[in-house]
Write a structure and sequence with these properties.
Elements lengths: L3 E3 L26 E6 L4 H16 L7 E7 L5 H15 L7 H8 L2 E5 L5 H18 L5 E5 L6 H10 L9 E6 L6 H14 L5 E4 L6 H11 L13 E9 L8 H26 L8 H14 L8 H4 E7 L1 E3 L2 E3 L17 E7 L9 E7 L6 E8 L8 H4 L7 E7 L3 E9 L7 E9 H5 L6 H11 L8 H19 L6 E4 L6 H8 L9
Parallel strand pairs: 1-17, 2-3, 2-5, 3-4, 5-6, 6-7, 8-13, 9-18
Antiparallel strand pairs: 8-14, 9-12, 10-11, 12-13, 14-15, 15-16, 16-17
The structure holds 6-O-phosphono-beta-D-glucopyranose.
Length: about 525
């Protein structure tokens, strides 16, 4: 690829006085509410939720009437929970150093109740504490129940909430659950039924944290707030779309979960298919929860399920062996803790999907997701067709690649456009150059953590960035037939050394269509 033409303003002025940062403050503030975190002493709460709440507090986005109640099995008091929260915030907050004044105010709104999920009496005790806090914290009876616990606990928690009379009453009652939403279509439906027995679908907030990422939301802004891209966003000019979700990390102590899930369930069923939906959907009538989600469901349903006959040619499953990532030697997947020694679970998945509708006829969508790749990168590459007629001849255009738009989701969030430009010289040589937009240099602010946005939206009652039951089901409908064939060892598991871009079969997947993966 050729040189990079930087078009963004690179300013060195401090944010406070920089005109580019003007108007960036988000003035939406959540409704008064009491957030109960089930599993408050666990990993998700410590790494993501508590730091996100602190950062919302720092941006003055938490409602005036607000409290967090940690609910878990550990023996803790309000004070020891506050100490725990403060340590986690210090370690994981995206903004540093910690603002002690904000932290102290936030901690004074944190409380703890020991709850054994199996004991109704514990839920009744929790309810009594919440009622007291209703008065002292002015939260108007509004409740946000966050299940930061393993999915098998969801059923018990919602049933106990119902039995203790906590799921109804004055104010709103919302429940937040984390992926995975089931492990196949059947279990996803069962989970939906469990949640809907107690909560109305409008009060169920299913988190796919990718939707909270600024750059993922920007896919919609890019497509629908501009007039120049949408006319070319179809089969007439687009050759193919590539989605890469590459991680450097391995399974990070999550072997027990991951060995049952694998890359297809862990990333493709949710994060990657959400990216496909946002790239491929029709313009929604409004940026409003059901309009957006209706369009996403339509496009997910238009994806042709991969048939049993196609699965060997249209999918690749890989697993990493030991190797080197970023200069560090790492073990193979089968040597990771809590992974079966002969495990056949995939840590890399690649597929080719086709969307059976007018806009996307004959445009393949290639997806690949893997752990222990050479670098962490999530990007969407829109590859355009070559011009219908080459005016300049093969010599002049030897270094010219077709146009491409890359939406970089992370890291170095931004968008780039590749096009041909004449190389300055007496002759005529045309080479690809890149025009780059980078969030950091354009807006001079760090993008907020996905959880900040999602927690705030839940307090506000805006489910646009949460997945609806029918979306989840549509995604499983695509994944189930692939999983069935993979269980049958079709195609066979292909090994790749940690620190490479997956097995050679992944290259063949695109090469059989005379294409190449973009090397980020
Ligand atoms: C999670 C997966 O949903 O997403 C993890 O369970 C994965 O396996 C993570 O590492 C990736 O998220 P991010 O935000 O780091 O891209």
């Amino acid at each position: 690829m050729g040189g990079r033409a930087q078009v963004t303003a690179v300013a060195s002025t401090p944010v406070a006085t920089n005109p580019l940062a003007e108007g960036l403050h988000d003035y939406r503030v959540g409704e008064p509410c009491l957030m109960v975190i089930f599993g408050a002493t666990g990993d998700l709460s410590g790494r993501k939720l508590l730091p996100a709440l602190y950062n919302l507090a720092k941006q003055r986005l938490l409602p005036a009437g607000f409290a967090v109640v940690g609910a878990a099995i550990d023996d803790m008091t309000d004070d020891s929970f506050r100490k725990h929260a403060s340590e986690k915030i210090a370690e994981f907050s995206r903004t540093q150093p910690i603002d002690q004044r904000v932290l102290d105010a936030f901690l004074s709104a944190c409380f703890y109740v020991k709850v054994d999920f199996g004991k109704l009496d514990d839920f009744k005790g929790l309810q009594r504490r919440l009622s007291e806090l209703d008065t002292t914290r002015h939260v108007s009876g509004n409740r946000m129940f966050y299940c930061a616990t393993p999915p098998p606990t969801y059923e018990t928690i919602v049933e106990q909430l119902k039995a203790a009379g906590m799921a109804t009453g004055a104010g709103f009652h919302r429940i937040v659950v984390e992926k995975p939403f089931g492990s196949d279509l059947k279990s996803a439906r069962e989970l939906t039924a469990i949640l809907q027995r107690v909560f109305h679908e409008d009060s169920v907030y299913r988190i796919d944290h990718y939707l909270g990422k600024e750059t993922v939301q920007n896919i919609m802004a890019f497509r629908f707030a501009n007039s120049i891209f949408e006319p070319v966003w179809n089969t007439n000019l687009i050759d193919s779309v590539q989605i890469t979700v590459a991680e450097e990390i391995g399974v990070e102590g999550r072997g027990t979960y991951y060995d049952k899930a694998g890359a297809l369930r862990d990333i493709v069923q949710n994060h990657a298919l959400q990216l496909v939906a946002l790239v491929a959907m029709e313009p929604p009538l409004a940026f409003e929860a059901n309009s957006v989600r209706d369009e996403k469901v339509k496009v997910l349903r238009a994806i042709k399920p991969i048939t049993d006959e196609e699965v060997a040619r249209a999918t690749v499953r890989g697993q990493y062996t030991k190797g080197w990532v970023q200069g560090e030697q790492v073990p193979g997947y089968r040597d990771e803790k809590n992974v079966a020694p002969g495990s056949l679970t995939e840590t890399f998945a690649a597929l080719r999907l086709n969307i059976d509708n007018w806009r996307w006829a004959n445009v393949p969508f290639y997806i690949r997701a893997g752990k222990r790749m050479p670098k962490r990168i999530t990007e969407i590459r829109i590859q355009f067709k070559r011009p219908p007629h080459m005016t300049f001849g093969p010599d002049a255009t030897r270094e010219l690649d077709p146009n491409a738009i890359t939406l970089r989701i992370q890291p170095e969030e931004g968008i780039s456009l590749r096009f041909g430009a004449k190389v300055p010289s007496a002759g005529l040589r045309i080479r690809s150059v890149t025009m780059d937009f980078q969030y950091m240099t354009a807006f001079l602010v760090e993008t907020p953590e996905a959880y900040e946005r999602l927690l705030l939206d839940c307090m506000i009652g805006d489910p646009t960035l949460f997945t609806r039951a029918d979306e989840v089901e549509a995604a499983w409908r695509l994944i189930d037939p692939i999983e069935a064939a993979w269980r049958d060892d079709r195609p066979p598991l292909a090994m790749y050394a940690a620190g490479t871009w997956g097995p050679p079969a992944a290259d063949k997947l695109v090469q059989q269509d005379r294409r190449e993966w973009h090397r980020p």
